[in-house]
Design goal:
A five-stranded mixed β-sheet has the order 6-5-4-7-10, sandwiched between helices. Strands 13-12-11-14-15 form a five-stranded mixed β-sheet, sandwiched between helices. The protein has twelve helices and 15 strands. Helices cover 40% and strands 20% of the residues. It has three domains: 75 residues, Orthogonal Bundle (Arc Repressor Mutant, subunit A), CATH 1.10.10; 126 residues, ATPase, nucleotide binding domain (Nucleotidyltransferase, domain 5), CATH 3.30.420.40; 174 residues, Nucleotidyltransferase, domain 5 (2-Layer Sandwich). The chain starts with 20 loop residues before the first helix and ends in a 6-residue tail after the last helix.
Length: 411
């Protein structure tokens, strides 16, 4: 092991717990289950080689996992000589996880199996109030459970455009959604009978890339920049999801880039997201259209796109004003990402959002701005994610799966 892979962690003497034999057994079980998930099909002998555990220990763990239906046995490997090993697979059909991604205007919902594969996916208008939201979600979950009565259900993951107070598990900061401090966890658990995990959407995107991205195992520093009506930042540093003591870490979207800038939904002026979000691009389009039509006030004088998808469609069809608006948005995205590169120097920054549809045009603008502003020579790659809802949904499902498969703690 080289020095770059050594994680330094202080032992908290007032709260430490000595590891018991049960703790070690639980950790070994999670390691084996996670290896099966990631490397299936895999034999017991390969599990023993990869973990360093004795074959008898691996056999005891796998037999327990098979009896509990977490793992199934599959084909036999026909080696030319010696004992023929039986391959192990994760029993993906054993359990389902509900993933829900809430945005100010639309909500995406999916039922996934243990491999993170979507079985059902739907999109609907976000209800106006939390009470309406809980009622709708509960009914949809009950309907989906009736369609698949053979499955057990691990729980519900809820991705939100705001921050969760870790001590109270309440939804506390969501300037673009408009909901106040809400106990969504307790309300959904009471109405569905399932455990609920709440997480910020940008943290969910970072988890999605960490769990499902095609990266080397050694990549442990990933930042997700979730671009929508606002901007969220999720950070995995040294393999740990960084949330801070209260759960509010990562609100780079509300870092001030210009004191005299437009007012943000959070109440501040000149936040990064008022320059680089979907909402900012729509504002640029209105301002540029007004100027071209001689209306210096910036008010709407001709029909303008109602949402960012419409603006993207205009840009994709070569509308020069829409292209200028998206380019300006990209310029400010690059400025903020340069701040992340300079301050945190991660291995990878992944940009999530509808804007990535134009990545061939947007990506070079972002990278040029990073090069112009960052002089630390950090070897950070900046890439685009897949379609906007998928990283949020996959990430919140990964957050639920982490409770079963993960062995690390959040910081």
């Amino acid at each position: 092991m080289d020095g770059s892979s050594i994680a330094m962690r202080k032992i908290e003497l007032p709260t430490f717990q000595v590891a018991t034999s049960e703790t070690a057994r639980d950790i070994n079980r999670r390691i084996v289950l996670n290896l099966i998930r990631k490397h299936q099909p895999i034999s017991r002998a390969d599990l023993s080689r990869q973990t360093g555990l004795q074959r008898s220990t691996v056999s005891a763990i796998t037999e327990e996992l098979i009896s509990e239906r977490w793992v199934t046995e599959g084909a036999v490997n026909n080696l030319p000589r010696g004992r023929k090993p039986t391959f192990l697979h994760l029993n993906s059909t054993r359990s389902g996880i509900f993933g829900i991604n809430v945005r100010p205007f639309t909500t995406n919902m999916a039922l996934a199996d243990l491999s993170g594969r979507f079985l059902v996916q739907e999109t609907f208008k976000t209800p106006a109030s939390p009470d309406e939201f809980v009622g709708q979600i509960s009914q949809r979950i009950q309907d989906l459970k009736k369609l698949r009565p053979e499955m057990c259900y691990e729980g519900i993951g809820l991705s939100l455009p705001g921050r969760i107070d870790l001590s109270t598990q309440r939804f506390v900061f969501a300037p673009n959604l408009g909901w106040k401090r809400e106990d969504l966890k307790q309300q959904l658990e009471s109405s569905t009978g399932l455990g609920v995990e709440l997480e910020n959407e940008a943290n969910a995107c970072a988890l999605s890339e960490y769990w499902f991205g095609k990266h080397p195992e050694s990549m442990r520093n990933i930042i997700a920049v979730a671009v929508s009506e606002g901007i969220g930042v999720g950070m995995i540093l040294n393999g740990q999801l960084v949330r801070g003591p209260s759960g509010l870490a990562g609100e780079f979207g509300h870092v001030t880039l210009g004191d005299g800038g437009p007012k943000c939904a959070c109440g501040n002026h000149g936040c990064w997201e008022v320059y680089a979000s979907n909402s900012a691009a729509l504002r640029y389009y209105r301002e540029k259209t007004a100027l071209k039509n001689g209306n210096g006030s910036g008010k709407r004088s001709v029909a303008c796109p109602d949402n960012f998808d419409d603006l993207m469609a205009l840009a994709e069809h070569g509308n020069p004003v829409a292209t200028e608006a998206v380019d300006e948005m990209a310029l400010h995205l690059g400025a903020g990402i340069a701040m992340l590169v300079t301050g945190l120097a991660p291995d990878l920054i992944v940009v999530v959002g509808e804007v990535t549809r134009l990545w061939e045009d947007v990506g070079p603008i972002i990278n040029r701005e990073i090069e112009r502003r960052s002089f630390t020579h950090a070897a950070t790659r900046v890439i685009a994610s897949g379609p906007a809802p998928l990283p949020r949904l996959r990430g919140i499902i990964a957050f639920v799966l982490q409770k079963r498969f993960g062995i690390t703690q959040n910081t």
